[in-house]
Design brief:
15% strand; 3 domains; 53% helix; binds flavin-adenine dinucleotide; single chain; Butyryl-Coa Dehydrogenase, subunit A, domain 1; alpha+beta; Butyryl-CoA Dehydrogenase, subunit A, domain 2; 382 residues; four-stranded mixed β-sheet; Butyryl-CoA Dehydrogenase, subunit A, domain 3
Length: 382
């Protein structure tokens, strides 16, 4: 199936990432989940495979591919370890992508090559304690001063932030201006007044890093601004529109892993004189899981193909994110069900996937927000 829809080069990428993920990520996923810890050594391995430069142009050390390649890589990483794929997405398709697209030539030339080499790690800080879906209501301030800006405020739930060398940060210069008052800047690790605090206690995605970011009279030079003053909100939204393709492919990876585990288990587990896979009610569940996972994958590839072709893709990216995230939750739920009591206990992989899946309907725009985006698009085109 995939061979018909992917090029030779894409099939090679898929196989390469799958081999790596099965060999190096999958065996450690349960341990990292248990320890509630990310493995930052993976970033060098991702870089060795060229994965951190997928969307980076060759002149900045990348391989200049597009979101089809991102989607293929993310699905395979998520199939092996969803939490690690969250760190990967935050670094690549949120932060590196935003810096490469919207920073000045000088800033891109300085920051992007070490990000593509995995020597530096990036985070994307939009959400605040008082604003998530309503991102334009953010309250962290930027006051203009000689040669730059002074930042004050805090961010919450920021992936990679506890170790990030560069934090793409959204702040307001004037709350009365709403989204037109927002500014995007890169805050660098070690800057006086910047502090991060790792957050513990996540339900799932525990091999991903999540942290709070505190900014107390942090000076950021003007050269670290992305775009013009007032363009920060547009930068955040355009980045999120693209990155939703990555989250959707993460969901496909989770659903695929849960489906595969259920397929294997139902052929081994016996009840009433035979494998439970022979029971029609079980077969119908497997059929739904396979169908919805494949439909999600096709939505992802469609959105990615449109994006790479320079065509409108926002509606399709939101459709992919909405459908794939809700599919991941449904498929993981069915996989637990099909494992019976064993599915409710560690070290069952489906117990972890069930917890990992849930956040995908929340971050990078909740399911409710995706429906708003899709409705706006269909009403406009109608
Ligand atoms: C593990 C994790 C990692 C994250 N990583 C990052 C990151 O790297 N960077 C970052 O900036 N953020 C990150 N986030 C934050 C995430 O993007 C937000 O949690 C998400 O956008 C929702 O915002 P909120 O939590 O403030 O919920 P709220 O916006 O308060 O929403 C609460 C509920 O109200 C609903 N709601 C809100 N508005 C509407 C509406 N108009 N119509 C219908 N329903 C509505 C929502 O759908 C939701 O059900 C992360 C979150 C988690 C859990």
């Amino acid at each position: 199936m995939t061979g018909v829809l992917l090029t030779e080069q894409e099939l090679l990428l898929q196989q390469t990432v799958r081999d790596f993920a099965e060999r190096e990520l999958a065996p450690r996923a349960a341990e990292l989940d248990e320890r509630d810890e990310a493995d930052w050594g993976y970033f060098r391995r991702f870089a060795d495979l060229g994965l951190l430069g997928i969307t980076v142009p060759p002149e900045l050390g990348g391989n200049g591919l597009g979101f089809r390649a991102v989607a293929i890589a993310v699905e395979e990483i998520a199939r092996a370890d969803p939490g690690t794929s969250t760190n990967f997405i935050s670094h690549l398709s949120l932060s590196t992508y935003a810096i490469n697209q919207f920073a000045s030539q000088a800033l891109r030339a300085r920051l992007v090559p070490p990000l593509a080499r995995g020597e530096k790690i990036a985070a994307f800080a939009l959400t605040e304690p008082g604003s998530g879906s309503d991102a334009a209501a953010l309250a962290t301030t930027a006051r203009k001063t000689k040669g730059g800006y002074i930042l004050n405020g805090s961010k919450i739930f920021i992936t990679n932030a506890s170790v990030a060398d560069y934090i793409v940060t959204f702040v307001t210069q004037d709350k009365a201006l709403g989204h037109r008052g927002i500014l995007a800047l890169v805050v660098e690790k070690g800057t006086k007044g910047l502090r991060t605090q790792k957050m513990h206690g996540k339900m799932g995605m525990r091999s991903s890093d999540t942290a709070e970011v505190y900014l107390e009279d942090v000076f950021v030079p003007e050269g670290n601004r992305m775009g013009e003053e007032g363009q920060g909100f547009r930068i955040a939204m355009e980045t999120l529109n693209s990155s939703r393709i990555s989250i959707a492919s993460q969901c496909v990876g989770i659903a695929q892993a849960a489906y595969e585990a259920a397929l294997k288990y139902t052929q081994e587990r016996r009840a009433f004189g035979g494998p439970i896979a022979q029971l029609q009610a079980v077969q119908h569940m497997l059929a739904d899981m396979a169908t919805e996972t494949e439909a999600s994958r096709l939505l992802v590839w469609k959105a990615a193909t449109l994006k790479d072709g320079g065509l409108p893709f926002v509606k399709e990216a939101s459709m992919a994110k909405l459908f794939a995230s809700e599919t991941a939750v449904r498929v993981a739920d069915k996989a637990v069900q099909l494992h019976g009591g064993y599915g409710y206990f560690k070290p069952s992989v489906v117990e972890r996937l069930y917890r990992d899946a849930k956040v995908t309907t929340i971050y990078e725009g909740t399911s409710q927000v995706q429906r708003l985006v899709i409705a706006r698009q269909v009403l406009q085109s109608g």
